Amino acid sequence: MTKPRRRVLGRSRKREERSAYLFIAPWIAGFLLFWLAPMAISVVLSLMDWDLLSTPKWIGLQNYAELFFNDRTFWVSVGVTLKYIVLSVPLYLVTGLLLSLLLNLKIRGITVFRTILFIPSILSGVAVAVLWVAMLNPDTGAVNDVLRQIGISSPPRWLQDPSWAVPSIVLVGLWGIGGGAIIYLSGLQNIGAQLYEAARIDGAGAFQRFRFVTLPMLTPTLLFVLLTSLIDAFQVFDTAYVLGGSQGGVGDSLRFYLINLYNAGFVGGRFGYASAMAWILVLAAAAVILIIFRTSGRWVYYEYDPESER
Amino acid sequence: MSVATAKPRPDADGAGRNRAYPLATLIRRRGKRAVLKGAAYVILLALSAFVLLPVAWMLTAALKPDLVSVFTVTPQWLPTDHWDWVNFRRALFDTLPFARYTFNTLVIAGGNILGTLISCSLVAYGFARLRFRGSGPLFYVLIVTMLIPWQALMVPQFLMFFKIGWYGTILPLIAPAFGGTAFYIFLIRQYMRTIPRELDEAALVDGLNRWQIFWRIVLPLSTPVLTVCAVFTFIYNWNNLLGPLIYLNNDSQFTIPIGLANLVTRAGTPWNLLMAANLLSIIPPVVIYFVVQRKLIGGIASVGLKG
């Protein structure tokens, strides 16, 4: 009795499977063409010397050896990028959080403030950089004028001073901090009021409520923002390109990793070398992401069991 | 008002609870609240000035004639002396070709929106609703591709497109969108999973096939998330510098970001026209943001949660 029924079920199952593969076919094709194939090519390429025109030459690990032991500008670019990460990621994390707390206040007109402060984050890196390259002009720019008016007689020379160039970009990024704040804000608004209520009944003050309710409940959002801001920090390009030019700013002070890669590959025509650089970037980023994920269990608090969701 | 007293839900703001406190405490509290509220407004206004004043300065600079420097000893934040609105027309048509750059950017953005919506909605439906062998591992691969930055693949992708003769065309900037973007697939899938399955099952019983269910039921119900994806795609492409920089080699194809960046990095930048062009370039994202504000923030919020 059950036999024919099962066969019918099996057939509909098979039909479902066939249509499923049709539905996901665009992504399968895209993945093979635009991800897997380039990745394979990239691995091979990183072991070659090739300028696009001549015949590619197999050179083994020489590209990597040159990068690690014989390329000063590579290490300069690593240094600039790390400096940016160290300066920007913690600063953006904290200021974004503080701003979101401010924007979470239930006061009149708060949506207007939210909107205003969010706007810079949807503008292009180029548009923002074009504006700030003018603002940061050391002699005639508005920033230094304001600084002089509040009594700082010799303000930093920003982009023209190699030691201030990276901090300049970090400050420009602060202008768009509202974008991160909005993500925190959605996290804040998902914290149940009953938790605050309970904390209040237990006699917790404002700071304690922040420390023992808000902060733990916000850790998943913090993890998300930490990861995305790190990935972004590895890939700074637009702002540095506009503020420092394609050659990496004054004294290589803005030679970010991607600027350097772009120069090696698309300006210098060393595509094998640039591929090797790309792989080092991927591995470094993957290592950092992995470390954060591994350690996140210790500080990220999930209210629900994330496994039960799927 | 301190941080944690900002209640996430208005219903928690119990006026009734305050009655339990003695009057003196209540007055003291009200006074403290007023001070904190005032402080919050001061900070918010200062931050808004920090965001808006540079934009106002940009407008001031854009309205200045060629012979007046946009840089002054004390910065002019608001336009008072000069009102050369013609600068916007000059940036677009006469002196600088930003109308053409805008058109080029719109073509690329439009192609990407089309490709993204078609491919990502199909794939998301497959992952959200259909059972098939390998769906788990394939979805895992999809998530992993989300974490690999595109920049890591830009060299080999460039070489592939170069080999098939697409260098110097906009095709390499559009074609990948038709292969789906992992992030948007993920976003749409998450959304589709919230649509009640009973709808599908009822439709199956009524004799609709999978495609009809997708097209007539799930897709129309997914318009909010599709809007979010379209907006994200637009803003990404409107702002994208590196992609067009790599693939386009002719001024007639250049996009707005390339046009702006080239003006800054060359000598003798026409600052007034540059600021006019820059101001025009930020209008579309801002307008779109205002139009779809709620959906956009909701979309970002869902990303933040699922991250």
What does the secondary structure layout of this molecule look like, with pairings?
The complex is a heterodimer of chains A (about 300) and B (about 300).
Chain A: H1 2-45, E1 48-49, E2 57-58, H2 62-70, H3 72-103, H4 110-118, H5 125-135, H6 142-149, H7 162-174, H8 178-189, H9 193-201, H10 206-234, H11 238-244, H12 257-267, H13 271-299
Antiparallel strand pairs in A: 1-2
Helix pairs in contact in A: 1-13, 3-7, 3-8, 3-10, 3-12, 5-11, 8-10, 10-13, 12-13
Chain B: H1 15-18, H2 23-62, H3 86-94, H4 98-129, H5 135-147, H6 154-163, H7 171-174, H8 182-192, H9 197-205, H10 210-221, H11 223-239, H12 242-247, H13 256-265, H14 271-291, H15 293-306
Helix-strand category of chain A: mainly alpha
Instruction: Count all strands of chain A and give the number.
Output: 2
Number of helices of chain B: 15
Q: Using the alpha-carbon principal axes, give the shape of chain A.
A: globular
Shape of chain B: flat
* Cα-based radius of gyration of chain A, to the nearest Å: 25 Å
Radius of gyration of chain B equals: 26 Å
Between the first and last Cα atoms of chain B, what is the distance in angstroms? Answer: 30 Å
Please trace the helix and strand order of chain B, writing H or E for each element.
HHHHHHHHHHHHHHH
For the secondary structure, the number of strands of chain B is 0
Q: Termini distance of chain A?
A: 35 Å
Write down the overall mean pLDDT of chain B: 86
Kindly report the greatest chain-chain contact and the residue count on each side: A-B, 115 and 109 residues
Describe this structure in words.
The complex is a heterodimer of chains A (310) and B (307). With 310 residues, chain A is mainly alpha-helical. Chain A has 13 helices and 2 strands. In chain A, a hairpin with a 7-residue loop joins β1 and β2. In chain A, α3 runs parallel beside α7 and α3 crosses α12. The longest helix of chain A is centred in the first third of the chain and has 44 residues. The radius of gyration of chain A is 25 Å and the shape is globular. The two termini of chain A are 35 Å apart. The C terminus of chain A is likely disordered. Chain B is mostly helical. In chain B, 69% of the residues lie in helices and 0% in strands. Chain B is built from 15 helices and no strands. The radius of gyration of chain B is 26 Å and the shape is flat. In chain B, 37% of the residues are buried. The chains are: A mainly alpha (310), B mainly alpha (307). The interface between A and B is large, with 115 and 109 residues.
